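Dear Dr. H.,

I hope your travels went smoothly. While you were away I took the liberty of generating a structure for the chain from your last submission, since the lab meeting agenda had it listed for discussion. I wanted you to have the full record in hand beforehand rather than looking at slides cold. The sequence, exactly as received, is reproduced here:
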Amino acid sequence: MSQTFWETEAVEEQQQTAFEPPPEQQVEPVPVAVSADDFSALEERILRAVELVKRERQLRTAAEERAAKAEAQLGEQSPVVDKLKQEIHALRAERDQVRQRVERLLSQLDALEL
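The corresponding predicted structure, in token form, is as follows:
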């Protein structure tokens, strides 16, 4: 048989109250006595923490800006570096050709002196 809405609600209430501790075991909040000095010290610590967080956020923003600028510079320099690498490769190839020509000339001079 199906339960009616009211019966279902009554069962749910019984289940909820079954998990609540009895009134004699319930803990009431105890008022905390805080002196003015303690409150001032706490306020000062909170203000220092807020300033520290602000400063760290500013430093983080500045670091992110520097990193973005460095990445932009790297992007600009990358084609220049590639071009310089190609020039170095071409100059080394030319040097090897000149070395080979000089060695051939020297070997021909040596052959003449015999």
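Two observations you may find useful: The CA atoms of residues 101 and 107 lie 10 Å apart. DSSP finds two helices and no strands in the chain.

With kind regards,
E. W.
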